C-alpha cells in the first residue's frame, strides 16, 4: 500500500512539473511569435517607406506628389488582412485600402470597445518613436472587431503617420495550436511513463508473490522434513521400547513364571524366594522404563539423578565409562527445560558413545547467566560418517530449538563433543515435552 501511495505521489509531482514545463514552453513560444510579428511589421513598414522614399526625399510638398505617395501605399498589401494605412496628425484618414470610405474623414475621436482612443494613441506612439501599439479594429476577412498589434512611424516633413498591423486572433490561433501540440506531446510522454511504472509495479508485485510462494514452499518443505524426522524418532523409540519389553522385561517375567510353576510343584521355599527377587527386578525394570518414557517433574536432585541414570544406561548399553560433573547445585530449571535436558544428555551420550573406539565419555553441566550449559564429550573413537549419526544430531536440534536452545558439535581424532545451551526458563509457547 505504501509503495502504491509513493508511486501515486511521484506521478502527481511529475504531472504537475510537466504542466509547468508545458506552460513555460508555450509562454516562450508566445514571446517568440510576438517578437517575430513585431520584426515582420517593422520590415513591412520599411518596405513601404522605401516605396515612397523617392517622392518624400525629392523635396516636393505639392498635392500631386502626396497623392502619388498615397496611391503607392494603397497598392501595397500582403494577404487578405495585410495592408497599410496613413493619417495626418489631425486624425484625418489619408490611406485605407480595405475601408476606402474612411478616407477623408476625421477619426480623431474614434474609440474601441475598451474606451481607447485609437487614432490618438497611434499618433502618440508614432511621435514617441517606439512604434508599437495594441488596439481593436474591424478585421476585413471577418467583419468583426479584433485585437490588433500595429506598427507606425512619423513622417515629420509631411506631418503624416503611416503604419500596418497584424490581427491578434491569428497569433492566438498559432499559440493555441502550439499549446495543444505541446500538451499532447507531454501527455503522450506521461502515458508512456505511467505505462512503464505500471509494468514495473506489476513486476515487483509478481516478484513479491513469487518470493512469498517460494518461501511458503521452503517452509512447508522444512516442516515436512521435521515431521518426517519426528515420525522416524517415534518409530525408533517404539522399536527401542518393544525391544526392551521383549528382550529384557519379557524374558525376566517368563523366567519368573517358569520358576514359580516349578517351585509350586515341589513346594520349594528357596525357589519361591528367587522367583520373588526376579519379579522385583522386573518391576524395577518396568519403573525405570516408565521413568524414561515420562519422568515425573524434575527438581535439582531428580535432574541430577536423571542425568546420572542416563550415564549408567550409556555405560550398560555401550560399554564406555562415563563421568558426570554436575555443577548446578541447588539451581532448578523449569520443568520443560529439566525434562529436555535429561533427554538431551541421554541422546548426546548415545551419539558420542557409538563412535568406533570410544573408551570413555564425560558429562559437564553448569548454569551461566540463566542458561543451562551441557557438554558431552567422547574420548577416543572415530566418526563412522553414517547418516544415522546426522539424524541423531538433527533430532537433538529439533528437541532443543523449540525451547530456545542451540546445539553445536565438533569431531576430531581425540573424540567428539556436543555442546548444548538451553535457557533455564521455558518460552511461553513451550509446553512440557512428551515422548
From TrEMBL:
Single Cache domain segment(s): 30-120
Signal peptide stretch: none
GO cellular component: plasma membrane
Transmembrane segments: 190-214
UniProt GO MF annotations: kinase activity
Record keywords, A-Z: Cell membrane, Kinase, Membrane, Transferase, Transmembrane, Transmembrane helix, Two-component regulatory system
UniProt keyword Transmembrane helix present: yes
Family annotation (Gene3D superfamilies): PAS domain
SMART domains: Cache_2
Subcellular location: Cell membrane
UniProt KW Membrane keyword: yes
Chief localization: membrane
Topology with respect to the bilayer: Multi-pass membrane protein
BP term (GO), one: phosphorelay signal transduction system
Domain of life of the source: Bacteria
Name under which the protein is recorded: Single Cache domain-containing protein
Organism (species): Crenobacter luteus
